[in-house]
Amino acid sequence: EVQLVESGGGLVQPGGSLRLSCAASGFTFSTYWMNWVRQAPGKGLVWVARIKSDGNTDYADSVKGRFTISRDNAENTLYLQMNSLRAEDTAVYYCVTDRNSFDYWGQGTLVTVSS
Amino acid sequence: DIVMTQSPDSLAVSLGERATINCKSSQSVLYNSNNKNYLAWYQQKAGQPPKLLIYWASIRQSGVPDRFSGSGSGTDFTLTISSLQAEDVAVYYCHQLYDLPLTFGQGTTVEIK
Hints:
The complex is a heterodimer.
Chain A: E1 3-7, E2 10-12, E3 18-25, E4 33-39, E5 45-51, E6 57-59, E7 67-72, E8 77-82, E9 91-98, E10 109-113
Parallel strand pairs in A: 2-10
Antiparallel strand pairs in A: 1-3, 3-8, 4-5, 4-9, 5-6, 7-8, 9-10
Chain B: E1 4-7, E2 10-13, E3 19-25, E4 30-31, E5 36-37, E6 39-44, E7 51-55, E8 59-60, E9 68-73, E10 76-81, E11 90-96, E12 103-104, E13 108-112
Parallel strand pairs in B: 2-13
Antiparallel strand pairs in B: 1-3, 3-10, 4-5, 6-7, 6-11, 7-8, 9-10, 11-12, 11-13
């Protein structure tokens, strides 16, 4: 059974940093592309970043230069390092597998950026 | 960016009746080399993460009831729930995986009439 468990969310001040983690199990993590998708309270889904199985990365323009996606295949873990956080980054962040499409989603972790 | 526009924003359907959601992309999401439309549909129930229903525009994900079907090609797509059940109350999103940035429709809320 595929499991994705996000952690690391919380309350952070504007300009601060946070590192999200996603522990993966139930599939061969190293062979999957992985994504982060966020959802602001009461709003729709927004793609944030992607990392391919070869380590190549892509980002939404809104986070480029501030966020870094990475993976540790030995630990079956996906990361999102978020720097220079803004109020508009407040959202639930989902870790998502990417094969034919966004196949499996974690439960999400809430990031709140506020003073 | 490819803009995904869903219609309607919300709809109320009687139990057992058909629900139809449309999704239009601002450019084609058909990849000619493999003739696949890079279009997916997700269901999000209140307080839960999204769940994949349909990929490549018309392929039902394993375990998804066959009352859910997807159709369309190029820029125009449809998600149909053939006989609405109470557990289908949710927000439905279309999603293009053809080009970066990956984008979603704004969502369509389905309720029981």
